């Protein structure tokens, strides 16, 4: 049974209850998410062959310092970096290091800043120089899948509608959806209820109600959905070494539909990748 509580009545820990936030929370999410989106925008000029993921991590740290924004991932459950950088067959939670990016790589950069206690969580794919068509197409499919998931968010709908829309589209494009990781409630906590699966059935899962705040962050593979965690305890990779891509937005359910907090004000949500309008993908 799903429990909903007004956010102010819910303790600052994940109890399994779904928080319903008010206008002040939405404004807090806008502030935090704006910094995150601006950082991801700036990274479009930085990601290129020869740049290390550690240099990206350093940039994200400094960008936040200059804006009084703290990277949520730093020291989170022992994670030692300010950002996750996941390259090619890395599904998520890649750890920045001093190995340079290569021409043709694709890299997901996942940034979460905390501003005044609110978490703005978002990620994008970046092509490194000229990439192969298979890599570009995977990024296009993944971004369209995210948009379809967002389009499914409306009061009276269900969390399962999001996953069903994503999975239905990804399968039609001969791609697989990773099931080991999911979207999540966000706000004053980095990870909160509900879990937002990127697969499932229409009409299933918790009902979507105004005031809910969560992420949608599908991970889509060119090969099979199976993943494994490397010895570092964080890095998730595809078992078949196929490519993986991910896009993520934080959003809040409104009376009319939803508000996406982490959209790029510069239209750079898909930096370096051309994605036709959603209507053309339907």
Cα-to-Cα separation, first versus last residue: 34 Å
Beta strand %: 15-25%
**From N to C, what is the helix and strand string?**
EEHHEEEEEHHEEEEEEEEEEH
The helix tally amounts to 5
Strand runs, count: 17
Largest sheet: 4 strands, antiparallel
Find the structural class using helix and strand composition: alpha+beta
Mean pLDDT: 95
Low-confidence stretches: none
Gyration radius, to the nearest Å?
A: 17 Å
Protein name: Methionine aminopeptidase
EC number: 3.4.11.18
Cofactor: Co(2+); Zn(2+); Mn(2+); Fe(2+)
Family: Belongs to the peptidase M24A family. Methionine aminopeptidase type 1 subfamily.
Question: What this model shows, in words?
Answer:
- It catalyses: Release of N-terminal amino acids, preferentially methionine, from peptides and arylamides.
- With 282 residues, the protein is an alpha+beta fold.
- Helices cover 25% and strands 24% of the residues.
- The protein has helices at residues 23-43, 53-65, 133-151, 159-172, 278-281, and strands at 4-6, 18-20, 70-71, 84-87, 90-92, 106-115, 118-127, 176-177, 183-185, 192-196, 213-216, 219-221, 227-229, 236-238, 244-246, 249-253, 258-260.
- The strands form six sheets. Strands 3, 4, 6 and 7 form a four-stranded antiparallel β-sheet that branches. A three-stranded antiparallel β-sheet has the order 5-14-13, with no helix packed on it. A three-stranded antiparallel β-sheet has the order 8-12-15, with helices on one face.
- A hairpin with a 6-residue loop joins strand 13 (227-229) and strand 14 (236-238).
- Helix 3 (133-151) packs antiparallel against helix 4.
- The longest helix has 21 residues, at 23-43.
- The protein is globular, with a radius of gyration of 17 Å.
């Amino acid at each position: 049974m799903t429990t909903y509580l007004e956010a102010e009545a819910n303790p600052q820990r994940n109890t399994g209850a779904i928080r319903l936030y008010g206008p002040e929370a939405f404004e807090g999410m806008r502030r935090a998410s704006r910094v995150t989106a601006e950082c991801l925008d700036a990274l479009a000029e930085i990601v290129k062959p020869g740049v290390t993921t550690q240099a990206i991590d350093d940039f994200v740290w400094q960008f936040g310092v200059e804006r009084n924004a703290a990277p949520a991932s730093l020291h989170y459950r022992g994670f030692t970096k300010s950002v996750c950088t996941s390259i090619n067959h890395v599904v998520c939670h890649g750890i920045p290091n001093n190995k340079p990016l290569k021409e043709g790589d694709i890299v997901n950069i996942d940034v979460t800043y905390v501003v005044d206690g609110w978490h703005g969580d978002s990620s994008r794919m970046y092509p490194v120089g000229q990439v192969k068509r298979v890599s570009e197409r995977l990024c296009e499919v993944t971004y369209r899948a995210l948009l379809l998931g967002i389009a499914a968010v409306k009061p009276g709908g269900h969390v399962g509608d999001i996953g069903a829309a994503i999975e239905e589209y990804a399968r039609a494009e001969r791609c697989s959806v990773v099931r080991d990781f999911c979207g999540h409630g966000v706000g004053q906590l980095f990870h909160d209820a509900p879990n937002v699966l990127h697969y499932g059935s229409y009409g299933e899962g918790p009902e979507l109600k105004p005031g809910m705040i969560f992420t949608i962050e599908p991970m889509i593979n060119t090969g099979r959905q199976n993943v494994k965690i490397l010895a570092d305890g964080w890095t998730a990779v595809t078992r078949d070494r196929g490519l993986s891509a991910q896009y993520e937005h934080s959003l809040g359910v409104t009376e009319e539909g939803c508000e996406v907090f982490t959209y790029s004000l510069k239209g750079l949500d898909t930096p370096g990748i051309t994605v036709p309008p959603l209507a053309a993908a339907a």
